Amino acid sequence: MTTSVGDYYIGIMSGTSLDAIDVALVSIKDNKTQLVSAIEAPFEHELREQLLTLCTDGHVHLKALGELTVKLSLAYSDAVNLLLSHHKVSSEQVLAIGCHGQTVFHSPEGKYPFSMQLINASVLTANTGITTVSDFRSMDIALGGQGAPLVPTFHQSLVNNTNPNAVFLNIGGIANVSLINGDNLTGFDTGPGNVLMDGWMQQKFGLKYDDNGTLAKQGIIIEPLLMAMINDDYFHKKGVKSTGREYFNLSWLTLHLTQFSNTYPEQVVRNEDVLATLVMLTAKTIANALMHLSNTVVYVCGGGAKNSYLIEKLNDLLPNSQVTTTKSLNVDPDYVEAMAFAWLAYRCITKQTANDCAVTGASRKAVLGQITYNS
């Protein structure tokens, strides 16, 4: 592929699952994004544990928070420099980095709404020599929106003029959908994606995730537990909505398990059964959000695209739709979100709006992001 100097942007994403740092080098022309190269940089163990602890209990000394932010930003910098080295691209060829940062708390409602992502853009810019765009959510929230999901507008850019009616399903820690109908766009977080499954795997099996759903396949779905979890108010909320690990976490799951054990004290619950039930929770809450569609292609991306058992359940629950991955669009499912934040950086640098009011609930469209220039 040939690209001219000035087309390059880099996107960085480390999602709710905290499985790795995804970095994508893309070429963007006329709002169209093409993946040039990408890497997945594993988190250093101590850094990942510190981030997980912060996301889980929310308590940290201010000094530790500042140091953790710098440490994470240096890890982002190392990942960017590694990608540039592998692809033999100089920092001068990249117009900007779009870095989402690591979400540690998302609270878009209430008297003082906010969404907190850890990122020190100055550290990232100083250590890569590339202008950085960060803090993508704050302006949308300031305008009354949820600040999420932000990727539906990017999804729309991927299919315009080729398949104007499509659904993108991103299954990261949290699952979100983008429903594209020509120029009309809606999108929202359906609820947990991998976050509960991965948390259960780490707690009970000492593994980061259930590869291909192998252990979940050995379990039996606990229907009363599933029904109780699906009865959560979040799943019945209509319209604009977003969520995160601060809501759907192992404490939320433990509460439901305790209530189940109190109601059915005679029933033995195996760890594999809980895991199978969590797979069905993710699949069913996604399917419920898409049940009204027919003859629609659902493009899956994110870590959940690798879970064949989860994809199998989605196919069972959505018989009137074709469930595939973004590979069908020649877009690697692993790097769609990183590509999205490269695109969001491009939109910010070129002073183009990036949010959609029907998706986030903001009062108007806006240019998103804060720019830290390399000078």
TrEMBL record:
Positions of ATP binding: G15, T16, S17, L18, D19, A20, I21, D22
Pathway(s) the chain acts in: Amino-sugar metabolism; 1,6-anhydro-N-acetylmuramate degradation; Cell wall biogenesis; peptidoglycan recycling
One GO molecular-function entry: kinase activity
EC number: 2.7.1.170
Enzyme class: transferase
InterPro entries: Anhydro_N_Ac-Mur_kinase, ATPase_NBD
Assigned keywords, A-Z: ATP-binding, Carbohydrate metabolism, Kinase, Nucleotide-binding, Transferase
Gene3D superfamilies: 3.30.420.40
Catalysis performed (reactions): 1,6-anhydro-N-acetyl-beta-muramate + ATP + H2O = N-acetyl-D-muramate 6-phosphate + ADP + H(+)
Presence of keyword Cytoplasm: no
Family note: Belongs to the anhydro-N-acetylmuramic acid kinase family.
Function of the protein: Catalyzes the specific phosphorylation of 1,6-anhydro-N-acetylmuramic acid (anhMurNAc) with the simultaneous cleavage of the 1,6-anhydro ring, generating MurNAc-6-P. Is required for the utilization of anhMurNAc either imported from the medium or derived from its own cell wall murein, and thus plays a role in cell wall recycling.
Entry protein name: Anhydro-N-acetylmuramic acid kinase
Organism placement in taxonomy: Bacteria, Pseudomonadati, Pseudomonadota, Gammaproteobacteria, Alteromonadales
Gene for this chain: anmK
